[in-house]
From TrEMBL:
GO cellular component labels: membrane
Segments traversing the membrane: 9-26
UniProt domain NodB homology: residue ranges: 89-263
UniProt name for this protein: Polysaccharide deacetylase
Gene Ontology BP terms: carbohydrate metabolic process
Origin: domain of life: Bacteria
Length: 271
């Protein structure tokens, strides 16, 4: 009886061990099946991305790159257009009351160094003894205009006196340069174009007047001009004062750096 009990216990142990082993085996099989299913699902998802779809993705990436490149090109072209527009802005520098025995030639030197052409409205009574300065103006491409003989307020003169004021200066300029000038700037801006003697003359006023003749503060004059300059302006200055000459050259440097170009009054008006 004792031996029979032992044998029965052994069989129970074997059966118990078999059940444990079988349970582990089943669990492993389930894990293998789940792993295989996951891998198969992944392969199916990848397969769903067809070559055509992959090509579309590649094309989309290429399109994005092309759009970015196009935007950069458009921006560069816009910058070039803006720079071109700025480069087309023109300014006419004009100087009244000369020639001065010293300052006018200093101004001419500075303008020549900078490649700038200007317009000089000369006073006839200041020309004798400085004919070479007038000739130099013409030879270096500047425009010479008429500012009367005595810097007279023509609104206070008779018709014959007005005609004489302009004619005397015109004759002097033509005698020196060989050419008469039709451009005039009446002192104080007063003008009467109904006079027959003035009918062929072109009066030139201004758009920017920094009142340089009222101050020796060069910086103030420069600031007034460069703040107002916008293109197609006619700037009124005087070559009869040292501070005005210094201001003029500083104005040129600043506005040239901003893309402005300088022309004579004739060039500006005939555009």
């Amino acid at each position: 009886m004792k031996e029979t009990g032992i044998r029965g216990g052994r069989w129970m142990f074997v059966l118990f061990a078999f059940m444990i082993f079988f349970s582990i085996y089943v669990q492993k099989q389930q894990e293998v099946q789940e792993t295989g299913a996951q891998q198969e699902g992944k392969r199916q998802q990848e397969a769903m991305v067809s070559p055509e779809a992959q090509g579309m993705q590649a094309d989309a990436g290429a399109d994005t790159g092309e759009k970015a490149e196009s935007m950069q090109t458009d921006a560069a072209e816009e910058t070039e257009r803006e720079q071109a527009d700025v480069g087309e802005r023109k300014i006419a520098l004009t100087f009244d009351d000369g020639p001065h025995p010293v300052y006018t030639e200093l101004l001419l030197d500075g303008l020549k160094e900078r490649g700038v052409k200007a317009t000089f409205f000369v006073v006839g009574k200041n020309i004798p003894g400085h004919e070479k300065v007038i000739l130099r103006m013409a030879q270096e491409g500047h425009l010479i205009g008429n500012h009367t003989y005595d810097h007279a307020d023509v609104s206070r003169l008779s018709s014959s006196q007005v005609c004489e004021e302009f004619q005397k200066t015109s004759d002097l300029v033509e005698e020196i340069t060989g050419e008469a000038t039709p451009y005039v700037r009446p002192p104080f801006g007063n003008w009467d174009d109904e006079l027959d003697c003035l009918s062929s003359m072109i009066a030139v006023n201004w758009t920017i007047d920094p009142l340089d003749w009222t101050t020796a503060n060069t910086a103030q004059v420069v600031e007034r001009v460069v703040t107002e300059a916008a293109g197609d302006d006619i700037i009124l200055l005087h070559d009869y004062y040292k501070s005005s000459v210094e201001a003029a050259l500083q104005i040129v440097d600043i506005l040239q750096a901003r893309g402005f170009s300088f022309v004579t009054v004739e060039e500006l008006l005939l555009e």
